[in-house]
Write a structure and sequence with these properties.
By secondary structure, this protein is an alpha+beta fold. The chain folds into two domains: 47 residues; 113 residues, Sandwich (Immunoglobulin-like), CATH 2.60.40. 27% of the residues lie in helices and 37% in strands. Strands 1, 2, 4, 6 and 7 form a five-stranded antiparallel sheet that branches. Strands 5-3-8-9-10 form a five-stranded antiparallel sheet, with no helix packed on it. A hairpin with a 5-residue loop joins strand 8 and strand 9. The protein is rod-shaped and about 95 Å long. About 4% of the residues have low confidence.
Length: 168
């Protein structure tokens, strides 16, 4: 009976030790997963503070402003696409390189800074079209945050994480 008791006690002790080892590990994994989720939400929240807007510059040109409203710098800002809403236009917008300064890419935008690109509306033949008053624009841009995460954003939509630099 003593041997059975010793074996039972030993097994119980081992079982308690095993549970004691695994329980903190399980809690640590759960805490790590929760922390990663919170960090991802926070990063997405900061990315949503990077916005774009458009304003008419002249009869045939609009300025597209990408503004870093996040509390940290962003890098590699690209204006990927600008279009008039489908119901409003027969033409397509495109970046106009002849205007200066007109960079589609900024190396770094500090908090509160904006990148401005000049854009013109062209018909299928390449002739200039004048934007109509109150015309709405669909703007797509990409950037990289301070953590190195790439983002792509369509105005009016939440930012999307990208594995690589976003393209139009």
């Amino acid at each position: 009976m003593g041997d059975v008791w010793n074996v039972g006690t030993t097994l119980a002790t081992l079982l308690i030790a095993l549970v004691s080892c695994l329980a903190p590990h399980h809690r640590t994994l759960k805490a790590d997963k929760e922390a990663a989720t919170i960090r991802a939400r926070s990063t997405a929240g900061r990315a949503s503070l990077v916005t774009a807007s458009a304003r008419q510059r002249s009869d045939t040109t609009i300025d597209v402003l990408i503004t870093n409203g996040a509390p940290s710098p962003i890098a590699d800002v690209d204006l990927l696409d600008v279009r008039a809403e489908a119901a409003e236009s027969d033409g397509t917008w495109r970046l106009t390189p002849k205007f200066s300064p007109n960079t589609a890419t900024a190396c770094v935008l500090q908090p509160g800074e904006s990148l401005t690109s000049h854009v013109q509306l062209l018909d299928p033949a390449g002739a200039l079209l004048a934007p109509r008053s109150g015309m709405r624009f669909l703007i797509t841009f990409g950037f990289r945050d301070l953590d190195g995460q790439w983002w792509k954003r369509d105005i009016g939509q939440p930012p999307e994480r990208c594995e690589t630099r976003p393209v139009a």
